[in-house]
Amino acid sequence: MAQVMGMGIMPWSPLKHGFLSGKFRRDNAGSVDTKRTAMGVPGEKDYVVIDALCAVADEVGATPATVALAWVRSRPGVASTLIGARRPDQLQANLAALDLILTDAQIAKLNEASKPVLNFPADINTYLAPMFGFPGTTIDGQTVPALPQLEASTSRY
Fold first, then answer.
1. What single-letter DSSP state applies at residue 87?
2. Three-state DSSP class for 23?
3. Which among 39, 54, 60, 133 has the fewest CB atoms less than 10 Å away?
4. Looking at residue 96, what DSSP letter applies?
5. Contact 59, 106 (CB under 8 A)
């Protein structure tokens, strides 16, 4: 909506209360030393994102925080991002995101891992939109294709 209306957005808590900072990993889930655990600890859905983020971070030789902020910055419509660094090393990792350009494949990996699961009716639109949408329209990011018979015909409807 913001893009359509010509507005930029500023994501709040792009590191998800420190979950995406690199300190939380499956193999140390119970031993993170932080006051932020009062905000909760990562669940399974969070670890799916954390795993993908850490894989990309290892690929590019950057911290997970740097990759997370570079990914947020790459999102359409993002005009600015709030950071919450408390220490100089955190600030340095956050600012390194300004120089990191992720590949389309890396962005796609992070997009897929963090894609929200929508409930009814969004979950059925994947299957029904192509059947009920007018050819050429876009519903929930999917463009409805023209029927092959219509594309093959020389007459237009």
1. S
2. coil
3. 39
4. G
5. yes
